[in-house]
Design goal:
Blueprint (H helix, E strand, L loop, with lengths): L1 H17 L24 H10 L3 H14 L34 H14 L1 H4 L2 E5 L4 H6 L14 E5 L5 H19 L2 E4 L5 E4 L4 E3 L78
Helix pairs in contact: 4-7
């Protein structure tokens, strides 16, 4: 009887040893842009928008060439600088838009500040909103004198994991020291979204946890250009993606004509094929 009990114990021990361990659930992937980017404003959405109208190729290339001439192309992917408002669908607007050429100089200084005092400190960033035309800005709840309407502002999220408090602390010191030289505005919204522009030196929406070391800098005259905090609730689920755009085979059609941006000088003529003008994923 004693031997039988020992044998049963040995068998049970072997079975327990062979039981595979339960794997711990994988941590959620870091995707700070997800609350702001719906289907249609992602990279596939950009390609559909780009190819839906032949004249957009000319506008995009002209804008990218302008940034390259100023030495700021590639600070962030150019196609992401064409994102309009997070609420573009609800407002009946376009997911992407090229600003009037008269406003392009405003983006140069903003990108210089991002290149010099944002990316070196927090790593790569992704633009989730840049130029907004006045009609879309009103519908999206932008400030009455929002720098987004001048193509001077970019709302960004960091692509490397970081807490909101650390993000503020990291960006605040250099902004206090160098922001005035760039005329840089720095603001923070819900989640990980923050704003950079180059219209005027100011800072807003600082979290109380960091306000002592990084206080807001907002004068009464700045109120109309300062955005309010975004809602704390996450945006609605992404909508169904737009249907694909059928593009003629290469060589079957002539190069697209260039259509001037309304209210601006016409962009230069383009000779490169459309396929080479869609910025690759970065």
């Amino acid at each position: 009887m004693h031997r039988l009990i020992l044998a049963l114990v040995a068998v049970a021990g072997q079975a327990a040893a062979q039981t595979p361990p339960v794997a711990a659930p994988a941590p959620a992937a870091w995707d700070p842009a997800a609350p702001y980017i719906t289907a249609g404003q992602d990279e596939p959405g950009y390609r559909s928008w780009y190819l839906a109208a032949p004249w957009r190729a000319g506008q995009v290339k002209a804008f990218n060439d302008y940034l390259a001439g100023a030495g700021v192309a590639g600070v962030v992917p150019t196609w992401q600088l064409l994102r309009t408002a997070t609420s573009w669908q609800e407002c009946g607007g376009q997911p992407f838009e090229v600003a009037p050429t008269s406003d392009w100089p405003h983006m140069i200084q903003t990108l210089r500040y991002i290149r010099d005092y944002v990316i070196p400190l927090v790593g790569p960033v992704e633009p989730v909103s840049a130029y907004r035309n006045p009609t879309l800005n009103v519908c999206a709840g932008g400030a009455p004198q929002s720098a987004h309407m001048l193509d001077s502002a970019v709302d960004l999220v960091p692509l490397h994991p970081i807490t909101r408090e650390v993000l503020m602390r990291t960006l605040c010191g250099p902004h206090s020291e160098h922001g005035a030289d760039y005329g840089a505005g720095l603001g923070f919204y819900a989640f990980m979204r923050f704003h950079v522009d180059s219209t005027k030196f100011r800072r807003w929406n600082m979290d109380p946890a960091v306000a002592a070391q990084c206080p807001p800098i907002v004068h009464p005259g700045d109120a109309a250009s300062v955005g309010q905090p975004l809602p704390s609730a996450a945006p609605a689920s992404p909508a169904s993606p737009s249907p694909p755009v059928i593009v003629p085979a290469p060589g079957s059609a002539q190069s697209p004509a260039v259509v001037p941006v309304p209210g601006s000088a016409p962009p230069p003529t383009i000779s490169a094929p459309v396929e080479t003008q869609i910025p690759p994923r970065r």
